[in-house]
Design brief:
This protein folds into three domains: about 190 residues, D-Maltodextrin-Binding Protein, domain 2, CATH 3.40.190; about 90 residues, D-Maltodextrin-Binding Protein, domain 2 (3-Layer(aba) Sandwich); about 300 residues, Aldolase class I (TIM Barrel, Alpha-Beta Barrel). It is built from 27 helices and 22 strands.
Amino acid sequence: MNEVSTSHAARTRRRDPLRLVGVSFLNAQPLLHGLLSGLADERMRLTLAPPSELNRQLFEDEADAGLCPVAALANHGGLELVSDCGIGCDGAVRSVKIVGHVPLEEMDELLLDAASRTSVVLARLIARERCGDREPRYSVMSAEEIAQQVGGRVGGLLIGDIALELEGRFPYELDLGAAWKELTGLPFVFAVWVARPDVLDERDVLKLHGSLEAGLKNRAAIARAWARGHGGDSRVYQDYLEHSIRYLLDERALCGLREFFRRATEAGLMPPTVLRFVGQAQASRDGARSARRPSLDALLQEAAQGARLSFRAAHVLGSEVALEELSLAADMRKRALHGDATVTYLVDRSIAYTNVCGARCPMCSFYREQGDAEGFVLTRAQLGAAIEETLASGGSRISLEGGLNPKLHLEWYEDTFRWIKRHYPVALHALSPDEVWHLASIEELSVERVLGRLQSAGLDALHGTGAEVLTDRVRRVIAPAKCKSAQWLQVIRGAHRLGMRSTATMMFGTVDTLEDRLIHLLKIRDVQDESGGFTSFAAWPYRPPETGPRRLPGVQRMALSECLRTQALCRLVLDNIARIEAPWLEQGEELSQLALSCGADDLGSSGLVARAPGAASSRGADEATGLEPALERAARERGFRAVPRDVAAGPSSAGSAGR
């Protein structure tokens, strides 16, 4: 939402309870103590969530205010900060540290816990400062996995309670609070109370301050209660709360926070950030400049030059800038990355191996239910014919696409993948995160175990399809039986951790809004920061059927201008993904051609093998159509030369390398 609509929504919601979200870490308990002990009145509803889920709720307007990691404050760009209280340190913090068997400077890989993006960014800043050109490789996994896999030249970032639990267990520990103080001489701020604009009033702020005041007076009792619930020595917890954590957000802390934002922006890890406080009195403490925002011309220029955009800045561009200007900025960025003359496409074939799917997405015209006469699973003869046709046309990759078929278990995929690899020299790009999540569920295995077995069987890369739009509000409407957005991202992270690459996609234009689409892009950007595993990004509009039972009520075909605005925003927001596709097969010739002047540099796949013989609205496996000549003609008509690209190419480092 823009600031006007956000304010209106906030005023409308005043009749409802204020939705507050806190985190369950020990260091947050003093801030929450008063609220949990009765200070919250009937106007407040407090829930607890992990930092990543808290961020999602704030971005997706499922929460009004939250005890938020400061990186999310920067990425959003439109949240207001509650003065005078936060979670920070002035030196050693004990609960955020890099651990290992060798010093950071000697580590080949650093395992990151994505639960707190603030700590991840801090770890990367410290690593760049200390390691220079020998910055370690980064992988993302859960805290429990990190603790188990640290060893040799592999280190890990431990955050929160697990860092306290494992204190002293590793030969090498680098306290990031102490490292920051050594680097800058300033305190560090990890989390603060933030709110959507105009949601909190003076009474609410006083309650948040009062909650912390009560907590500071009762740190000994909080430590004893924590020890009873979690084990451990209450005296250790009390010492941590009283001497390691700094709860005062004074001028020194704000200086440290601004310095963190400055360094992270220069490193390309976060967008430029100006602190905005709840209420005019607080805002004046940060100077009059906090109320200003960059001009549209300045925002366009920064975006065209590859500056990292916050949610708020991207929303301004997407809602207030003329399409011609937005497209020009995206085109300038594309030309800076790829030059003026050439666009690419991929010679491959997409093979639908089954159309039986239990997800029953209401807008999908492809799936058939189990037992339907039009349902199919390709035989190996049909699959082999399709692959041979691909090889004969010069293709070197096949892309297997299907659905959540309850009859196909993990062993079927393993056997099929091994058979393909044994008989054909092709790269195997297969399965969406939804399909992997489905397999993990029916086999009662972890996502990591399923991915590992599929990789061993021959899977080279994972699809980034099925994302639709990665906000839970949208997915509940258009794909209610598919995995949630966090689960989709979990599968992608797991694949990247195993060394598999993937694409990333967005099908928009159903019930999604500009806000939903921007949140999707920011989630993809965050994962690319962590792993660099996305090889390309493709977005296309949903094309609703004119009639029929699978037409979403009220959903109309999106206007061409809005499709092009979305295309341009993809290029400008995804500063760390070099290849932005205008996928011909999904959106058609006209839109793909025009998208080449709105930031796209690739036309996607050159051909399609869709369905089994006899399936409705399909071609047989021996009737595939190669689109190479048409793609090259379309590119020429827009002043470009289209050339095939290498399917084995890894991810490119658009923007700042190493993000």
